[in-house]
Specification:
The structure is a homodimer of 346-residue chains.
Chain A: H1 14-21, H2 25-32, H3 40-52, H4 59-66, E1 71-76, H5 82-97, E2 101-106, H6 115-122, E3 128-131, H7 138-145, E4 151-153, E5 172-176, H8 178-190, E6 196-199, H9 206-221, E7 228-230, H10 236-248, E8 255-258, H11 261-274, E9 284-289, E10 302-305, H12 308-324, E11 332-336, E12 338-340
Parallel strand pairs in A: 1-2, 1-3, 3-4, 5-11, 6-7, 6-8, 8-9, 9-10
Antiparallel strand pairs in A: 10-12
Chain A binds a DNA duplex (30 and 30 nucleotides) through helix 2 and helix 4.
DNA sequence: GTAAAGAATGAACACGTTTTCAATTTCCGT
DNA sequence: ACGGAAATTGAAAACGTGTTCATTCTTTAC
């Protein structure tokens, strides 16, 4: 309101605060950095005047000298994919609480990534990078971003082989698919289900591989024949089409696992609205992820869940640990899955 | 691979590139900035060597001296809301193409915003800010972020009063709800619908106000009685509950408008799975937004759409114009809506 | 061939911080 | 009151770039 005409009020700088508080510019810097030596009343005075002048330290300048940008880069093919968006949301909240901001970068939707993007991204000097990407090795990222940046390839849908590696080269988040899958197969067995199909995600992706393998393993252990696989790509549309194929070209199934919840929605809609089958009476459906939409009445999906908040907490913990201690040996955290029973089975 | 032990390879700097190319450091800077005077073959050489050394200019340093961070701040209550996530996705793509990166900040889910967040955000020196927030005036943002930062309050769901303002104080994106609503009401009239209800969004929000008002206006113009309003908050859950109320406590309706598509999903599920009514035979449903999920077979929603790509293009255009010419008079762009007819009517 | 105009070049400065380091002040135990 | 340790302080250096400005080299017009 007190602005005049086209005048642009310049941002306050530490110098101005110092002058007004009759202290040195260094003192202002110290006032904003904890664990520095500054007389309490002086710090208080400076912070008060800073607030009056609406001053906060410039992160760019701070980054330049301290080497910490307080930016965390997130590489993602599709922000609006359900799983990814919920993950990004939780991550942003958690990181913001720790004084970091998330920097968003989009890559191709086929979960691949190009070197141009990495160079582009490096210019922003992120303190850490989380890549929701498949088909990329951590070493590739390291080469382009430099070893100083802790990197987390956060496979979509928490995909990873089931075992914790003995001596991991990079920090890892392991998801143990077994528990949830065992519960799911046990539940199906209770309903005397015989023919089980699997509508896959993108074939080569870690999440898909891990889930299909675990399903196959658990079924074999229980003496069931291996599942029929219908190829999908984690999308509603492909899962829809795959289900039609399964019943029109193939021999159908009594129960269908989908590689993710959105895929399961496609399966359900194909069964009900195109094939005229009832879920769960005629065909039972189980998904993976437990996204927020899975409890919507139209789907009410039974699904294998791994806890989002726990996952994000673990990831943030890994990042902070690594930033505080860059040379520590590689860490890994492990997460459990469990079955959430809703209406599409039973 | 060529790394040795714990050695951290430092990021290449302009100085290193200059040395290796036998030019001055200034020349390196010029090589990366178009419209600067530099012999073409020299620029080529520098860029080649830069690529070899995997060098890109440090954005923090660049921002410090040029005053341009190439960051665009986005303030959003919920990244995983369908509308917002699709908007963020498209914005990130468009901005990335222009050399900007999007910086994500989360605020409270009631679409409000606090001053602490604004101060926090200002520290990152965004070149521009887009706030997906209600209940906040541009002037408040200006006070905390400084007039140098172009600000766009991008009301969720494109909410805005229907008219273009004659002399706007800030850049604006206007959405003309009328066309789509007229088509929707006309379609319903064709089915001899008599009792129309409106499941609202958050009461005070611009989007909700604009949509309810336009619906009311168009119905009045056609001699229809005003719609019954059931209070929602843009969420599936509240729309679900509001619909139950409408039929159990209230007198029901022949057609229901929902303030947004996700709300419409809640309406549909309440009607079908809790009230045992058929859509569209017993009750017709129309949403607003046309999000990606609206064509899923379980909902197959008829809805009032305004084009996402067009919207994002307009917004980015506004931002770039403003950055190139900070003192230009306020600009406004206008978008049209139209009805997308699917299965929930007819 | 010459003068004028324009392009190319690099030294020095500026940006707003944090960090280092040496100097000063305060505190504590006797 | 005194010595030593600890806390407090500010000057100066550093971070990696873009920008300004005066200088040198090249081109153009006659």
């Amino acid at each position: 309101m007190s602005e005049e005409g086209g005048m642009i009020r310049a941002r306050a700088t530490a110098e101005m605060v110092a002058q007004r508080a009759s202290v040195s510019r260094v003192a202002v810097s110290r006032a904003f950095n904890p664990h520095t030596s500054l007389k309490p009343e002086k710090r208080e005075l400076i912070l008060r005047i800073a607030q009056e002048l609406n001053y906060t330290p410039d992160r760019a300048a701070r980054a330049l000298v301290s080497g910490r940008s307080h930016l965390v880069g997130i590489i993602v093919p599709d922000v609006c994919s359900h799983w990814e968006s919920q993950e990004i949301d939780a991550l942003t909240t958690a990181l913001q609480a720790e004084g970091f901001a998330t920097l968003l970068f989009k890559t191709r939707t086929d979960y691949s990534m190009d070197e141009k993007l990495l160079s582009y991204m490096r210019g922003f000097n992120p303190d850490s990078v989380i890549a929701f990407v498949e088909n990329v090795k951590p070493t590739t990222l390291v080469r382009f971003l430099g070893r100083a940046v802790p990197i987390y390839v956060h496979y979509p849908h928490g995909g990873s082989v089931d075992d914790a590696q003995p001596g991991p080269l990079h920090d890892r988040l392991n998801v143990l698919q077994r528990a949830g899958v065992e519960q799911a197969v046990a539940l199906l067995e209770g309903y005397k289900v015989r023919r089980i199909a699997y509508v896959s995600g993108i074939g080569k992706s870690r999440a898909n591989t891990a889930r299909e393998l675990m399903l196959r393993t658990v079924m074999a252990e229980r003496g069931l024949p291996p599942p029929v696989v219908a190829p999908g790509d984690f999308s509603y549309e492909r899962a829809f089409a795959a289900t039609l194929d399964l019943f029109r070209v193939g021999k159908g199934a009594d129960a269908i696992f989908a590689a993710n919840d959105v895929g399961a929605f496609g399966v359900i809609d194909a069964l009900r609205h195109e094939l005229g089958l009832r879920v769960p009476e005629d065909v039972k459906v189980i998904g993976f992820d437990d996204i927020a939409q899975s409890h919507w009445k139209s789907y009410n999906l039974t699904t294998v869940k791994f806890d989002l908040d726990e996952r994000v907490r673990a990831l943030v913990r890994l990042i902070l640990r690594r930033l505080n201690n860059p040379d520590a040996p590689a860490l890994q955290e492990t997460l459990q899955t469990r079955l959430v029973v809703r209406g599409t089975v039973g």
